[in-house]
Design brief:
This protein has 17 helices and 20 strands. With about 525 residues, it is of the alpha/beta class. The chain has a nine-stranded mixed beta sheet, with helices on both faces. The longest helix is centred in the N-terminal third of the chain and has 19 residues. The radius of gyration is 25 Å and the shape is globular.
Length: about 525
């Protein structure tokens, strides 16, 4: 692969000649889609702290006879590489070829970390094993479900790791030097102040200079330590912590940003719904607002998603503004989902293609990847489908109850063509795009897909949801038996959910016509 020009990102920005606003937007879209395609040629070395995030789910069955403590029956465990590991996984999901450099122990949790990295496409051949320390592991235990609200009961952690030194530190430095000629960028993640020691950072800076690599760093507490790194990307609170100020307005944000670029060449400070502010040496400041407003469900790990998008954009030849735009877009996809997630290249491309549509609306290829990932994580996927024309209390009650059957609710929405075939001429009253937008505003709905077929059979066959929810007055014997056989053939479950009596779109339309 030809070495990417890593210097041009500082000065490059697309400029549009005089033309219509619509044409300019189309050119922007093509520019960003081109960058996303180039992500697949970028090789990234991720260096930093690795945590194994462990999520344990179960129920409290009784109080122990030996002591007044609850007995927790473990039903499910999920794992995710955390800290810099999560940023590495996001870079891989976005299309990059990623190599992880970090430290793990000689224990069972190190094996789990390697397995989870492999499942997410991250190369672990450069991990350093230190038998004198445990693999950093952070756990959350949650109990409940069904008739009992889910509640976090306990958090577990390994002892706070000391900074690496001696032989372990030297092995990390050797891995950085050996890998540097083979990559285009270095992503630095400083979470527990363990791996990123000054000698390790010096080795990164020297290797990046020698091989002309793009460098990006993020740190929970030490964002001001990265001298001669191309980009630091903290959130506004982390930027303020590094600068010794509390960021509460534009003035304090600027103070923090100017402090950061005394060390790094550029700072991209994430500000949640306010987007990203770019600070560069020489006093340049630019705000890049979010382009697709979303309602955040869980912001955990969203900063890692932004870091991955930024480093890949810049290494692919994009500008800092490009990086901020795509970082905002990727984060918007992450925060509408529960838990720590990775965002794929296709998901960002899909958001660009349908930028005016809701973030929850997916194509079938996108949804297949999402469902496969959810299943790998052990999440129970519920499917339901319908027209949802003129959303009413019956619809809402049904969807809320369907969501209770699992962890994630996917709604198949009949297209305008499909509704007309099923309901007759004159329907739908509300077009498919508007119906999708209304559904996306419901917290209980996680994903939406619009389909043209009269039945959802092709989608059920492609996705294999764990639960197929059916409403109305159906019984297991009166639903479409072809659908039943398909779901049961792969081990899925049929859930019959009673409707709300007298509530239907047909009745609403009849009442409106009667009163008009």
């Amino acid at each position: 692969m030809k070495r990417l020009d890593c210097a041009r990102f500082i000065r490059y920005n697309p400029v549009h000649p005089p033309q219509t606003e619509e044409k300019a937007k189309e050119m922007d879209k093509e520019h960003y889609l081109d960058l996303l395609e180039k992500f697949k040629r970028v090789r990234v070395m991720a260096v930093g702290d690795i945590y194994l995030d462990e999520y344990v789910f179960g129920v409290v069955t009784e109080i122990s006879l030996e002591a007044p403590i609850p007995v927790f029956e473990v039903q499910q465990r999920r794992y995710n590489p955390g800290a810099c590991g999560n940023a590495a996984c996001n870079a891989a999901a976005l299309g990059g070829k990623v190599f992880m450099v970090g430290v793990v122990g000689a224990d069972g949790n190190a094996d789990i970390v390697r397995r989870e990295f492999a499942a997410r496409g991250v190369d672990t051949s450069c991990l350093v094993v230190d038998p004198e320390r445990p693999t950093n592991t952070y756990g959350k235990w949650r109990a409940g479900g069904h008739n009992i609200p889910t509640q976090e009961m306990l958090r577990t952690d390994t002892p706070k790791p000391a900074a690496i030194s001696g032989e372990t530190e030297q092995k990390v430095i050797e891995q950085i030097r050996a890998l540097a000629p083979e990559v285009d960028a270095i992503l630095i993640g400083d979470q527990a102040t363990s791996v990123i020691t000054q000698p390790v950072l010096d080795a990164i800076v020297a290797s990046a200079k020698q091989h002309q690599l793009v460098t990006l760093a993020d740190s929970r507490k030490r964002a001001g330590m990265f001298h001669e790194i191309d980009i630091v990307a903290p959130n506004d609170a982390e930027a303020g912590l590094a600068a010794g100020v509390k960021v509460v307005d534009d003035a304090t944000l600027r103070q923090a940003g100017e402090f950061l670029v005394q060390s790094a060449r550029n700072a991209l400070v994430t500000r949640g719904p306010q987007g990203i502010t770019i600070f560069s040496r020489g006093g340049s400041v630019e705000d890049v607002p979010i382009s697709r407003p979303v309602r955040a469900v869980d912001v955990t790990g969203a900063g890692d998603t932004v870091d991955a998008a930024i480093i890949l954009t810049v290494a692919a030849g994009g500008s800092l503004r490009d990086a901020a735009f795509l970082g905002n877009l990727a984060a918007g996809i992450a925060v509408v989902q529960e838990g720590v997630v990775t965002v794929s290249n296709d998901e960002v491309a899909g958001a660009l293609e349908g930028e005016s549509g809701p973030a929850k609306l997916k194509t079938l290829p996108q949804l297949k990847r999402v469902v496969e990932k959810l299943k790998r994580e052990g999440r129970r996927v519920v499917w339901t489908n319908g027209c949802f024309d003129i959303l009413h209390v019956g619809h809402i009650t049904y969807l809320l109850n369907a969501r209770q059957k699992g962890d994630v609710l996917v709604v198949g929405l009949n297209s305008d063509k499909s509704v007309s075939e099923n309901k007759g001429p004159g329907r739908p009253v509300v077009n498919e795009k508007d119906r999708a937008l209304v559904l996306s505003a419901m917290e209980c709905v996680d994903y939406i897909i619009i389909f043209d077929d009269k039945t959802p059979m092709p989608l059920l066959d492609a996705l294999h949801p764990d639960v197929y929810a059916k409403g109305g007055d159906y019984t297991i014997n009166t639903i479409v038996q072809e659908e039943r056989r398909l779901v049961e053939s792969y081990g899925g479950e049929i859930a019959i959910i009673a409707g709300v009596e007298g509530q239907s779109t047909t009745n609403i339309i009849a009442k409106v016509m009667q009163n008009s």
